Structure formats: C-alpha cells, structure tokens
Amino acid sequence: MAGWAKSPNYPIVARINAQTSDMIFTQPVVYEFSNIHTPTLLIIGTRDRTAIGKDNVKDPAIRKMMGQYQILGKETQNKIKGSKLVELDNVGHLPHIEAFDRFIKPLEEFLDH
User: Fold this and answer.
1) Which long-range contacts does 3-7 make (Cβ < 8 Å, 24+ apart)?
2) Looking at the predicted structure, is the pLDDT value of residue 2 above 80?
3) How far apart are the first and last CA of the chain?
4) pTM for this one?
5) What is the DSSP string of 2-15?
6) What confidence tens digit (pLDDT) does each residue in 32-82 have?
C-alpha cells in the first residue's frame, strides 16, 4: 500500500478506491444478482471473511455471521441463473494473488467456452 501512495499514479488509485468504497456503501448489488443474464463465473476463497463495516456491528452473533463467503458464494450462485461457482479451499479475499495457479485454471476454462 505504501507503494501506491508513492506512485505517480496515486491520484488514479485513490479515486478508484474512493469510487469502489462509495459503490459498496451506497449501491448494494446483492438485490440485483437475479438480473444478470450473461455467463457468470464466481471464484471465491472459502476463508474470506471480508465484510465492510463489520467492526461497527455491536452484536457479536451478527458480526460473526458477516462475510461468510463459503455461504455467500452458494447464495449468490443460486441468484444468478446458470452461473458457475468455484470455491478455493483455504484461500482468503484475494484468490488471484493467494492461489494464482488454482485461480487461473477455472478462469481460463470459463473464458474458453
């Protein structure tokens, strides 16, 4: 992250990060997944527990339920007709970095069809 801040491209990276954060907070798309009608591949890490705002949730039981991608992946697949779900065991939020070899194969296979 320090490299981004020192990069001449920092203003672009900062703008993209701000736009992404704004989208997450103001435009939740979970309610629109059923509107997707194109071939869709979901690749998730089953160890991912990312949930923006989770630290602000006061109820520990609710906080613990948030970001359970091993559950969210299946729920999302069920909402996107004909989608394919690839779950990468013991991988977190960045499967394309954490387990590139396991990530790229299903991606290439999906793109070849």
Assistant:
1) none
2) no
3) 36
4) 0.80
5) HHHHHSTTHHHHHH
6) 999 999 999 999 999 999 998 899 999 999 999 999 999 999 999 999 999
Q: Are 59 and 29 found together in one domain?
A: no
Closest CA to 109 of 92, 86, 88, 77: 86
* Residue 19, domain extent: 1-35
Res 83: pLDDT? 98
In this structure, the number of other CB atoms found within 10 A of the CB of residue 33 comes to 17
Distance in angstroms (rounded) separating the CA atoms of residues 12 and 92: 26
Here the CATH number for the domain that contains residue 84 is 3.40.50.1820
Q: Which of 19-28, 61-70, 79-88 has the lowest mean pLDDT?
A: 19-28
- Residue 66 DSSP code: T
Instruction: Tell whether 29 and 46 lie within a shared domain.
Output: no
Contacts of residue 76, defined as CB under 8 A and 6 or more positions apart, other chains included, come to 30, 33, 42, 83, 85
> Are residues 92 and 107 part of one domain?
yes
